[in-house]
Amino acid sequence: MANMHEVDFEILGDDMQFVKVELDPGEAVVGEAGAMMYIEDGIQMQTIFGDGSQQQQGFMGALLGAGKRLLTGESLFMTVFQNQAQGKKKAAFAAPYPGKIVAMHLAEMGGEILAQKDSFLCAAKGVALGIAFTKRFGAGLFGGEGFILQRLQGDGWAFVHAGGTLEERTLAAGEVLRVDTGCIVAMQPTVDYDIQMAGGIKTMFFGGEGMFFATLRGPGKVWLQSLPFSRLASRIYAAAPQTGGGGREQGSILGGLGNLLDGDGR
Q1: Separation between Cα atoms, residue 43 and residue 186, nearest integer Å
Q2: Which residues, at least 6 apart from 21, have a Cβ–Cβ distance to it below 8 Å?
Q3: Under CATH, which number does the domain 8-227 receive?
Q4: 3 dihedral zone (left: phi>0; alpha: psi -120 to 50; beta)
Q5: Which residues pair with 169 in a beta bridge?
Q6: pTM for this prediction
Q7: Using one digit for the tens of pLDDT, what is the confidence trace for 72-90?
Q8: What does the domain layout of the chain look like in residue ranges?
Q9: Which of 13, 38, 69, 107 could make an S-S bridge to 17, C-beta 3.0–4.6 Å?
Q10: Contact (Cβ atoms closer than 8 angstroms) between residue 144 and residue 116
Q11: Which helix (H) or strand (E) holds 61?
């Protein structure tokens, strides 16, 4: 893409990481809402409608980009951080909760990555953010978090966040991996994605896991996270004192049945 910005960056920290992007004069980075940590003097912020990748398409192009982001549950707007100073300036973007930031150079991965809808952090201006519906009906009906994936396209740097510990795996052609849908961070589009039932009735209702899991079939790379935000939020909510009707006072078995379908009954 002609308007792609090639940026230098550094990822700092251990469990609570942030990425520091160095911008040459005129370069810009697009950030998810609420991800900015700090910007140096000379970097100007501009809120845009859509994903900012193809502003030359006019209002209808921006409206289409915004509509795609709305379908993934994200804000209609994004923020562009552009260096309008004479020298190099830096902008930093922080992870929303403990985990690892993954730097992906899209040109080295075939120009496209499919990511969990809440994992995107920031990218060099010119990276297009869209949506990718799963190909199979079962995945759309039962996929939960994995139903709609974000499609990152371009040839520049994109940064995504993985909760907890990150594992990067390369699946051979035909190799199958069964994963909790919330534990998927990203994958190459060559990886086939489907949803299957967890097993028998006893496994589904008393195994402590969700009724469905994702089946990934190679070839291609997949990035997995050990701590999906939904699981973290569920644990925090379960541990919080509850008053009135609901919460832990309902009992460990009956209180957990409502979480079985979404994979959070842990």
Answers
A1: 30
A2: 7, 8, 9, 29, 90, 91, 92, 93, 122
A3: 3.60.160.10
A4: alpha
A5: 222
A6: 0.74
A7: 444 456 789 999 999 999 9
A8: 8-227
A9: 13
A10: no
A11: helix 58-71
